[in-house]
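Translate structure to sequence.
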């Protein structure tokens, strides 16, 4: 049986990431990039799909584990009758080729250890050739090779699959095992294997602590904010500045179901919150790199704007299924690639223009070609904003007139006007003002349900959608507008034990809006949006309770997946999820600035409070 999603910790070298379980097993690793084929894919199948476990022989989960303060260096401890041991896992920030370093240190007594390595290239499918070199074991298949070395005496059980290394550590003794990827034509051990472990560990720890020291957030919840920012940095592909939504694919939104998606790419929808999060936290260089990635990615015809791109801005991300992988707890199909690239999602035009406006207001210069981009995007949107689309939830059902898409069309026009004012470029102000007013009037007429006293999911529909909580955040209506206050109250209908669903589900059948079978968990970011909206409408204590309820469902090392199942009390969806952590940081700032942090922490209620 698979470990729970929350049993995994993350280590990263800023170009790819590994998922490390409590039992000392790396069950997911794509090399050499986030979006490369996996060489360890047990997370989506069985041990035969690839893993690398280091732990005491015969032991299960570690006794405890923790990241070293302000770093992405993970310490796992086992306390056994014969002694205790610590395994330290990290990936040095990429200088050459990717490398995983695993340092085993005896703390007391004597502990028999085992390293069990079973690589499977090409998404957990291809069994490599394994050969023994001097001081190394090498696994090769197609374009890939893995080189594994140890810096002390070990016993290797032949060249069988898996490769097993047995050794014993006593108090004060250390042994380091390292795994490095290299193109298969490389004839000698990769450079990272020649770096002493202590040197690599110090350099990695120093890198993360220097980076974390730049954080400007001061106030309550600093530990959660810092860990979220470290996670966001870990999900950044350093060569281009792109931020992946998650390092995993096909972790299910419904265990055993078909809601399994590949999130190892970069979504434009995350752009404004990502930029805001980085700028507010003091990471201007990272914010600028993300902005540069975005501008490069969307270059071209505005009609071809996609919701999602590859790490380098690639447009082709064909979705395919992997029938050889049984899926996480039988959740099929396992998917690689994402068909969202083919969808019409009008809200992303608003996200892009909001991001450009935010960057300009933050003092990041706007090059002349970027103003041309603004004009191109607005020309397209003026012609197409009335069309139905698939919306921010990327539904696979029929296109609809989603209210959020219209609100974000209003945002696009509003931000274009603001940028024009800042730049003294008002030649198209009359047309953009007319569009902004037309969108606003239509949404207030068609998107508002007087009976429900709420904005709805789409025109003419009685369904609620948590995206309506963003209406005051983006400035479409002020927080003190009665329609905003009523909409926030109406969101109680999406409550599931104190957490917020994206929209209502109808059980196991095909959902009428998204076209998928089965239900899902509550969406972490939606609960954070709810906290923001509560604070904006003056319900500060409830806002704090909602926020801290989310903090309480982070895993033991501070990580959040995309969703939370309040009934089974487990994380769901791809993990760790950048959008969840970005939203956490933004909500922490919002609640701190609103004064919602003042006073002692209250007991977290299990359900949403009733309206006054």
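Result:
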């Amino acid at each position: 049986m698979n470990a729970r999603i929350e049993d995994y910790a993350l280590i990263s070298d800023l170009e790819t990431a590994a998922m490390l379980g409590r039992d000392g097993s790396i069950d997911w690793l794509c090399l050499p990039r986030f979006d490369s084929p996996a060489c360890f894919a047990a997370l989506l199948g069985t041990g035969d799909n690839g893993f690398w476990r280091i732990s005491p022989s015969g032991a299960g989960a570690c006794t405890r584990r923790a990241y070293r303060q302000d770093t992405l260096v993970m310490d796992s401890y086992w306390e056994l009758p014969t002694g205790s041991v610590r395994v330290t896992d990290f990936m040095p920030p990429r200088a050459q080729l990717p490398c995983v370093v695993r340092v085993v240190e005896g703390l007391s007594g004597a502990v028999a250890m085992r390293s069990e390595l079973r690589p499977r290239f090409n998404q957990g499918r291809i069994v490599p050739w394994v050969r023994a070199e001097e001081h190394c074991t090498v696994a090769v298949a197609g374009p890939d090779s893995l080189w594994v070395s140890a810096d002390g005496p070990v016993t290797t059980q032949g060249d069988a699959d898996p490769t097993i290394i047995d050794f014993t550590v006593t108090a004060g003794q250390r042994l380091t095992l390292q795994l490095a990827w290299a193109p298969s034509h490389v004839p000698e051990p990769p450079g990272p294997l020649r770096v002493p472990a202590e040197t690599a560990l110090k350099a990695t720890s120093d890198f993360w602590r220097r980076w974390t020291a730049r954080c400007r957030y001061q106030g309550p919840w600093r530990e959660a904010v810092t860990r979220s920012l470290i996670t966001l940095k870990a999900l950044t592909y350093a060569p281009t500045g792109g931020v992946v939504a998650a390092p995993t694919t096909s972790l299910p939104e419904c265990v055993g179901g078909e809601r399994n998606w590949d999130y190892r790419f970069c979504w434009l929808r995350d752009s404004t919150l990502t930029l805001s999060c980085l700028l507010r936290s003091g990471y201007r260089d990272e914010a600028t790199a993300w902005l540069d990635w975005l501008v490069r990615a969307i270059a071209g015809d505005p009609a071809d704007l996609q919701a999602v791109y590859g790490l380098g801005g690639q447009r082709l991300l064909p979705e395919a299924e992997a029938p050889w992988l049984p899926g996480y707890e039988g959740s099929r199909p396992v998917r690689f690639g994402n068909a969202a690239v083919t969808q019409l999602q009008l809200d992303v035009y608003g996200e892009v223009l909001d991001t450009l406006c935010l960057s300009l207001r933050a003092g990041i210069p706007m090059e002349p070609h970027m103003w041309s981009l603004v004009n191109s995007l607005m020309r397209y949107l003026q012609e197409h904003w009335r069309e139905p689309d698939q919306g921010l939830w990327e539904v696979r059902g029929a296109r609809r007139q989603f209210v959020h898409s219209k609100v974000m069309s209003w945002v696009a026009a509003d931000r274009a006007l603001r940028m024009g004012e800042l730049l003294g470029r008002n030649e198209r102000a009359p047309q953009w003002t007319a569009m902004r007013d037309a969108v606003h009037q239509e949404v207030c007429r068609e998107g508002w349900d007087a009976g429900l006293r709420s904005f709805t999911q789409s025109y003419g529909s009685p369904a609620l959608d948590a995206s309506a909580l963003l209406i005051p955040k983006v400035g479409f209506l002020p927080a003190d507008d009665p329609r905003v206050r009523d909409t926030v109250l109406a969101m109680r209908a999406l409550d599931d034990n104190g957490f917020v669903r994206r929209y209502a589900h109808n059980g196991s059948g095909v959902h009428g809006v998204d076209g998928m079978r089965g239900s899902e968990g509550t969406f972490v970011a939606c609960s954070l949006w709810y906290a923001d909206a509560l604070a904006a409408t003056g319900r500060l204590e409830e806002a704090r309770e909602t926020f801290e309820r989310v903090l309480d469902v982070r895993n033991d090392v501070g990580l959040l997946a995309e969703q939370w199942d309040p009934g089974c009390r487990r994380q769901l969806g791809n993990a760790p999820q950048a959008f969840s952590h970005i939203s956490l940081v933004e909500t922490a700032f919002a609640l701190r600035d609103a004064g919602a942090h003042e006073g002692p922490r209250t007991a977290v209620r299990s359900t949403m409070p009733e309206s006054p």
